[in-house]
Amino acid sequence: MAEAHEILHPLIQHKLTSMRSTATGTGAFRALLSEVSMLLAYEVTRDLPTTVTRINTPLTAMDAPSLDETRIVLVSILRAGNGLLDGMLRILPEASVGHVGLYRDPKTLKAIEYYFKMPRDMPHRDAVVLDPMLATGNSGIAAVRKVKETAPRSVRFVCLLAAPEGIAAMNEAHPDVRIFTAKIDDHLNEKGYIVPGLGDAGDRMFGTV
Ligand code: URA
């Protein structure tokens, strides 16, 4: 049984509907993706630990919780992962950013790595790996494998749409990695596209269709 945390909030589903539609152009698509990623950030950070600090409000001193954003590393799987970065960074402006460069071999659909850059001190950080589309899972699985080599404290995976096939593959390869998605779609087609999906997320956000 494929396992992923599907965030079925009406705001997210409403924006996702616009993103799926062929009537939505590049600028609107990018803006919507940025908004949805802010909403996803809310859910993916839900169980991160907070620490209590002594502060003064205008009325009194109090012990108040804070999240150490500098411990979070957002990892974008290039290039489409960058579409989720902007909104996440608006919510977590002090988070660090790592990049994994992967492309899908169009014949084998296997992930080929061409770039990898992460911040130092990974064992003190919680990694959130970003890719809008969890399709076959090949890129996500390869990216998570690379990220794990840096020994982060935890790894989460965030996508906009997930195919059941990709979730099952990720669950099998990395059972410890929780997947957060706005929607689990029906299936993959023979070319590895998510159906009903939204097409090629990179092309939609960068106007390279
Ligand atoms: N990547 C995309 O951008 N879209 C899909 O449907 C599958 C993989």
Computed over alpha carbons, the radius of gyration is 17 Å
Query: Which residue ranges are poorly predicted, with pLDDT under 50 across at least 5 consecutive positions?
Result: none
> Which ligands does the model contain, each kind named once?
uracil
Q: In one word, what is the shape?
A: globular
Number of strands: 12
Helix content: 25-40%
Structure notes:
The protein is an alpha/beta fold and 209 residues long. It has a single domain, classed as 3-Layer(aba) Sandwich (Rossmann fold), CATH 3.40.50. The chain is built from six helices and twelve strands. Helix 1 packs antiparallel against helix 2 and helix 2 crosses helix 3. It is globular. The two termini are 35 Å apart. The site of uracil has 10 residues, from helix 6.
Features:
binds uracil, about 35% helix, globular, two-stranded antiparallel sheet, about 210 residues, single chain, alpha/beta, Rossmann fold, eight-stranded mixed β-sheet
Q: Short summary of the structure?
A:
This protein is an alpha/beta fold and 209 residues long. The protein has helices at residues 10-20, 26-44, 82-91, 138-149, 164-173, 201-206; strands at 5-6, 51-56, 61-66, 72-78, 96-104, 111-117, 126-130, 133-134, 154-162, 178-184, 187-188, 194-195.
Write the layout of secondary structure elements.
Elements: E1 5-6, H1 10-20, H2 26-44, E2 51-56, E3 61-66, E4 72-78, H3 82-91, E5 96-104, E6 111-117, E7 126-130, E8 133-134, H4 138-149, E9 154-162, H5 164-173, E10 178-184, E11 187-188, E12 194-195, H6 201-206
Parallel strand pairs: 1-10, 4-5, 4-7, 7-9, 8-9, 9-10
Antiparallel strand pairs: 2-3, 5-6, 11-12
